[in-house]
Amino acid sequence: MQKRSEKFYWAIVLFLSFLMAGCMGSYGRLKSSPDVEKFFHGREKLPDFNYYYSGRSNLPYAVIGIHKDYKFNDRVWMQIDNQSDVYHKIENLFPSPENDYYKIGADILDPSGNKVGIWFSYYRHTVVKVYTDKRIDVLDPYNPNERRGLGGEY
User: For residue 67, which of 37, 110, 125 has the smallest C-alpha distance?
Assistant: First the structure.
């Protein structure tokens, strides 16, 4: 009887390990990128991205570009239709010039480390979920209980 319960125990542990690995494997991340900041300062156009913002139109929380190969779940994001509006939204992330330090440029990476988008925000973190069928979710970084710009590290 002892061996049977031990086998059952290990079968449950193995099953839960695979289950947890499958859930964790689909999360992407942000990675700080000087190239993304150069993109903003140089006013370069990246035609392979669709752009969105979250928050108020005159004071967004974040501006993101998602590669056109991905289907983006934009339920809390508003699409930005033209390139000049992308720069205007990024400039409005933190309207005070002395606080420019808090504008963060980052790559949005899939679980394998491939670039799937770009990120501008004074928040340093968010949840990125990438699905095998090239769908992507990026959560709104706003947390009413957190002070602006003091989020976690990349």
Answer: 110
**How far is the first Cα of the chain from the last one, in angstroms, to the nearest whole number?**
50
CA distance 75 to 62: 14
Contacts of 125 (CB under 8 A, 6+ apart): 30, 141, 151, 152, 153, 154
What DSSP designation does 27 have?
B
Ramachandran assignment for 48, one of left (phi > 0), alpha (psi -120 to 50 degrees), beta (any other): alpha
**What length is written for the chain?**
154
Q: Which two tokens stand for residue 28?
A: 């992407």
pLDDT tens, position by position, 53-91: 999 888 899 999 999 999 998 888 999 988 889 888 888
pTM to 2 decimal places? 0.74
Q: Are 49 and 67 in contact (CB under 8 A)?
A: yes
Structure tokens, 14: 């193995």
